[in-house]
Amino acid sequence: MAQHTVGFIGFGNMAQAMAKGFLQAGVLEGAQIAACAKRWEKLEKTAGELGAIPCKDAVEVLERSDILILAVKPYLIETVLAPIREKLAGKVLLSVAAGWPFQRFEEVLPAGVHHLSIMPNTPVAIGEGIVLLEEENSLSPQELSQAKELLAALGVVETVPSAQMGIAGTVAGCGPAYVYQLIEALADGGVKYGLPRKTAYEMAAQAVLGSAKMVLE
């Protein structure tokens, strides 16, 4: 894989999960990841733990990166993009913001910016996630291929039509939360009848893991 530098604009839970996944898979080193966030002290800690480069603002992230991952709350997107929107030429912009499909970005970005909306789920942190790609995008064929190759380190990459991003994101993104509840309930049942908590969690989690693999087979 070609060497990329990846910059996170916003470094909350999802951005950190993606960064951890890239590092665990060995496709990026800490020095190839830059990030900015609203709270500097927290950013220094979270980026420092991963060996990533904390940046003061989005402009610095942009200068250090060829692939930008926009990972802020949807209502902040236009504000966060304002200082860099005219400087995005030659960059690839990936957005993880729910409710912001391709056409909405087309309305707020200058013409010609190469962008793609994606939707990862939290298991990307251990390379077992799902990353949804919106079918409609403005990446070149080479850029799209490179983005898919990079994101494949996080798990399964699935391209879906724009109209299905909402429901696909619900299944893939919210699904883990329901499974965690199921695992906890199964384990609680085991504990109630005498199993040690740690053993009960391991058994319940393995039962779900094995069942999921059977379904995929």
Q: Helix fraction? A: 40-55%
Q: What is the structural class?
A: alpha/beta
Shape: globular
- The poorly predicted ranges are none
Strand content: 15-25%
> Alpha-carbon distance between the termini?
29 Å
Rg value:
19 Å
Q: Numbering strands along the chain, what is their spatial order in the largest sheet?
A: 3-2-1-4-5-6-7-8
Q: Please count the beta strands (DSSP E, at least 2 residues each).
A: 8
Number of helices: 8
The description of the largest β-sheet is: 8 strands, mixed
Helix/strand order? EHEHEHEHEHEEHEHH
Describe the structure.
By secondary structure, the protein is of the alpha/beta class. 47% of the residues lie in helices and 17% in strands. It has helices spanning 13-25, 40-50, 58-64, 77-81, 102-108, 141-151, 165-192, 197-216, and strands at residues 6-9, 33-36, 53-54, 67-70, 92-95, 114-120, 129-134, 155-160. β7, α6 and β8 (155-160) form a beta-alpha-beta unit. α7 runs antiparallel to α8 (197-216). It is globular.
What structural keywords apply?
217 residues, 8 helices
Brief overview:
The protein has helices at 13-25, 40-50, 58-64, 77-81, 102-108, 141-151, 165-192, 197-216; strands at residues 6-9, 33-36, 53-54, 67-70, 92-95, 114-120, 129-134, 155-160. The chain is α/β, with parallel strands linked by helices and 217 residues long.
Summarize the topology.
Elements (H helix, E strand, L loop, with lengths): L5 E4 L3 H13 L7 E4 L3 H11 L2 E2 L3 H7 L2 E4 L6 H5 L10 E4 L6 H7 L5 E7 L8 E6 L6 H11 L3 E6 L4 H28 L4 H20 L1
Parallel strand pairs: 1-2, 1-4, 2-3, 4-5, 5-6, 7-8
Antiparallel strand pairs: 6-7
